[in-house]
Amino acid sequence: PDLETALGAYEKKMFPRAAKSAKSSADGLKMIFADDSPTQLVKFFGRMQLLGKLVAPFQKLFGHSHVNHAG
């Protein structure tokens, strides 16, 4: 394919991924700068700790030491 076609195909895949990442970043900033930031951060990291415990058996089962965010 020509350059424009290849670029269009790349952008079609990357723009939704970039939008998802940008939303996550914006949500994180809102949490950090919220009036109740300390409470939100404690809850967030508590959920991450729970998620880590839930995922750990599967990581051991499949031999993965990290989560793939390539989506």
Provide structural commentary.
It is a single chain. The mean pLDDT is 88. This protein has helices spanning 3-32, 37-62. It has 71 residues and is mainly alpha-helical. The protein is flat, with a radius of gyration of 18 Å.
Count of separate DSSP helical elements: 2
Mean pLDDT over the full residue set: 88
Strand content range: under 5%
Provide the gyration radius in Å. Answer: 18 Å
In whole angstroms, how far apart are the ends? 25 Å
What coarse outline follows from CA principal-axis ratios? Answer: flat
Largest sheet: none
The low-confidence runs, each spanning 5 or more residues with pLDDT under 50, are none
What is the H-and-E element order?
HH
Query: Can you give the helix content as a percent range?
Result: over 70%
Number of strands: 0
From the helix content, strand content and strand pairing, which structural class follows? mainly alpha
